[in-house]
């Protein structure tokens, strides 16, 4: 898993040459391989991305981009009209007290109301192989293998805002 996540950070390293700072170390870790990747909208426009993996740290400023059309969360596509406002990935791999679990947390806004967004994720989760769907007017949870997919959503003006959380272990 560490190799896959590290390879994902390589494009960020090239962006860092123009818009951020990068620290590269020897990559030795006594407590296992802990990974943290975070993306968040900046108040003055654009996005900030922070990557912290063994042997590599970067803080990068990105131009104003909307990742919504390109984000796939364990085969679940984001709902149409979604704007990603924050993304955090925390994973551990191989530490002495580690169970190999991780958490992906994404905050978003959507121009559609909560019911339409929950409908989308209920269909998409089922299509992606998730089962045991539990649905309320403001939330959805589903399970697949060692993972849980959850959406919490609330009205926001004429649209909605919410958080998607995936917890568990990737068995691929």
Explain how this protein is built.
By secondary structure, this protein is of the alpha+beta class. Helices cover 19% and strands 49% of the residues. The chain has two helices and twelve strands, in the order H-E-E-E-E-E-E-E-E-H-E-E-E-E. The protein has a ten-stranded antiparallel beta sheet with strand order 1-4-3-2-7-8-12-11-10-9, with helices on one face. Strand 7 and strand 8 form a beta hairpin. The termini are close together. The N terminus is likely disordered.
Q: Mean of residue pLDDT?
A: 75
**What distance lies between the first and last C-alpha atoms, to the nearest angstrom?**
9 Å
Helix content: 10-25%
Largest sheet: 10 strands, antiparallel
β-sheet strand percentage = over 45%
SSE string: HEEEEEEEEHEEEE
Low-confidence stretches: 1-31
What structural class is derived from the secondary structure elements? alpha+beta
> What topology, given as strand order, has the largest sheet?
1-4-3-2-7-8-12-11-10-9
How many β-strand stretches? 12
Number of helices: 2
Rg over alpha carbons: 17 Å
- Tell me, what's the shape? flat
Give a quick summary of the entry:
It contains 2 helices and 12 strands; from the N terminus they run αββββββββαββββ.
């Amino acid at each position: 898993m560490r190799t896959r996540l590290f390879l994902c950070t390589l494009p960020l390293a090239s962006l860092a040459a123009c818009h951020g700072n990068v620290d590269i170390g020897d990559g030795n870790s006594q407590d296992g391989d802990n990974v943290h990747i975070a993306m968040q909208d900046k108040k003055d426009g654009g996005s900030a991305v922070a990557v912290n993996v063994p042997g590599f740290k970067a803080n990068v400023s990105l131009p104003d981009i909307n990742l919504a059309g390109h984000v796939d969360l364990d085969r679940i596509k984001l709902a149409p009209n979604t704007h990603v406002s924050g993304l955090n990935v925390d994973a551990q791999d191989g530490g002495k007290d580690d169970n190999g679990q991780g958490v992906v947390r994404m905050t978003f806004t959507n121009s559609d109301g909560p019911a339409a967004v929950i409908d989308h994720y209920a269909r998409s989760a089922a299509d992606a192989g998730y089962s045991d769907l539990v649905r309320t007017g403001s939330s959805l949870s589903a399970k697949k293998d060692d993972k849980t997919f959850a959406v919490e959503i609330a009205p926001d003006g004429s649209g909605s805002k919410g958080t998607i959380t995936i917890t568990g272990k990737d068995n691929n």
